[in-house]
Specification:
The complex is a heterodimer of chains A (261) and B (165). Chain A has 261 residues and is α+β, with helices and mostly antiparallel strands. Chain A contains 5 helices and 13 strands. In chain A, the strands form 2 sheets. In chain A, strands 2, 5, 7, 8, 9, 12 and 13 form a 7-stranded antiparallel beta sheet that branches. In chain A, strands 1, 3, 4, 6, 10 and 11 form a 6-stranded mixed beta sheet that branches. The relative contact order of chain A is 0.18. About 16% of the residues of chain A have low confidence. Classes of the chains: A alpha+beta (261), B mainly alpha (165). At the A-B interface, helix 1 and helix 3 of A face helix 1, helix 2, helix 3 and helix 7 of B.
């Protein structure tokens, strides 16, 4: 207990909460708690917050924490396909697009409640390419090659969730961040978020577009997947002409790659 | 450290971090972000400390500093409104008024960045100077000096504030 207070301090409560048969609690804390209704009440409040952490905060934040603490080599590779690198095939960065995605794709129904969705600034996607030891920031018209490793930085603005996915000319949709998982990841708002890992360009035919979607709430992963798969099935022209895939509740930026022989 | 170890540490200490961040920031979403950030920063230390108490010292040090910085970054209304000059009370009277936690938190917003965590742990969390020193890895003399500086600042603010009425 603190010298400035006759009650348990927050540090005392936390020590008590960590107590277990293998971590015996300090006797005075337990004795005080037995004798002090005010501290017992405070303990209930703290337990409710601890329960909230386990129920809500832990499941959402653990993947982010794990990503940030994962051991990394200088470049963490993951490949779109198992295709070997083909030299001499260049891809052009055709455009970097940003949109406030309030449109609805043909055939999509409008969700029932849009009243409390706030779409604010943010979602700018910065893309960097590494070839050998050289790293360059990509701009429209820039050239990249199969085998180049792309890294992404997203300006989150006022948003707290990020999801990066893409579609390719082969008719497929892919979840890139979190890799292989169709769900949004919590990120800090008002920050430049460097997406862990890099994306290696392969020599798959046709255009490829990558979308960065920031939102105030987690997106419905299944719904996003359905939208992107439909877009991919629309073929190369649909991919070229669709800067925003029609994901409501998100600010979307995208980058389009086009193969050039 | 394996992934399982990370999960175990986060489950063990995450509640304490979250409660700490909520107590300073009040805002649930901000506390969520602060919890993630704090755990990432203290993770290495949590793996190495010999006891839960030592782990909590690290947590309190990082969480308190991080959250107080976040408070500073928030826009907030002015703490005090100048009124007519009044005679300043003695410092010990200031100490008694600072027993009011909410008042203390508001006064701390105006304090020097080095003073803020000391004042928060002492006046808001009710810890003694020894424990404040251990958490922040300062000498007890430094803690006492910074508390004295805070009391002087608080006295000046209270003298100008409507709260004297």
């Amino acid at each position: 207990m603190g010298m400035t207070s006759p009650h348990l301090t927050c540090l005392d409560f936390d020590s008590l909460a960590l107590a277990s048969p293998s971590r015996p609690a300090a006797g005075p804390f337990v004795a005080h708690l037995d004798a002090c209704p005010a501290c017992r009440e405070q303990q209930k409040v703290r337990q409710a917050l601890a329960d909230q952490f386990a129920r809500e905060v832990l499941p959402r934040s653990l993947p982010v924490v794990r990503q940030r603490l994962a051991p990394r080599s200088r470049w963490h590779w993951w490949a779109l396909t198992l295709s070997p690198v083909a030299c001499g095939v260049l891809l052009t960065v055709l455009g970097l697009y940003k949109s406030h995605d309030r449109t609805v794709s043909v055939g999509q129904s409008i969700p029932g409640d849009l009243g409390d969705i706030g779409i604010k600034g943010g979602g700018d996607l910065l893309t960097y390419a590494r070839r050998g030891n050289k790293v360059t920031r990509l701009a429209p018209g820039g050239l990249v090659a199969a085998g180049d490793a792309l890294r992404f930085v997203v300006e989150t603005g006022a948003h707290r969730y990020l999801f990066i996915a893409g579609v390719d000319g082969g008719g497929h949709a892919h979840a890139y961040f979190p890799f292989g998982q169709w769900q949004s990841v919590p990120v800090a708002p008002h920050a430049r978020f460097e997406v862990p890992g890099s994306l290696v360009l392969d020599n798959a035919p046709g255009p490829e577009r990558i979308f960065a979607m920031v939102s105030s709430r987690p997106l419905d992963g299944d719904a996003v997947r359905a939208i992107l798969e439909e877009l991919a099935r629309g073929g190369p022209q649909a991919i070229r002409s669709t800067a925003a895939p029609g994901v409501l509740e998100a600010e979307t930026s995208s980058i389009l790659f086009e193969k050039r022989e | 450290m394996t992934e399982d170890r990370l999960t175990t540490l986060y489950k063990t200490y995450g509640p304490a971090i979250y409660i700490r961040c909520r107590s300073i920031l009040s805002d649930e979403a901000e506390a969520h972000d602060a919890t993630q950030e704090t755990f990432v920063r203290v993770y290495r230390h949590l793996s190495e400390v010999p006891s839960d108490r030592e782990a909590l010292y690290w947590i309190y040090r990082v969480a308190t500093n991080y959250c107080l910085n976040e408070l500073r970054n928030r826009k907030h209304r002015p703490l005090v409104h100048p009124t007519g000059a009044e005679e300043a009370p003695a410092l010990h009277d200031v100490e008694r008024r600072i027993v009011n936690r909410d008042l203390a938190a508001r006064l701390i917003e105006a304090a020097h960045p080095k003073v803020k965590p000391v004042a928060w742990l002492y006046h808001v969390d009710g810890m003694d100077q020894e424990e404040v020193a251990r958490i922040l890895d300062l000498s007890r003399r430094t803690v006492a000096t910074r508390l004295a500086a805070f009391a002087t600042t608080a006295q000046k603010l209270l003298r100008r504030s409507e709260l004297w009425a």
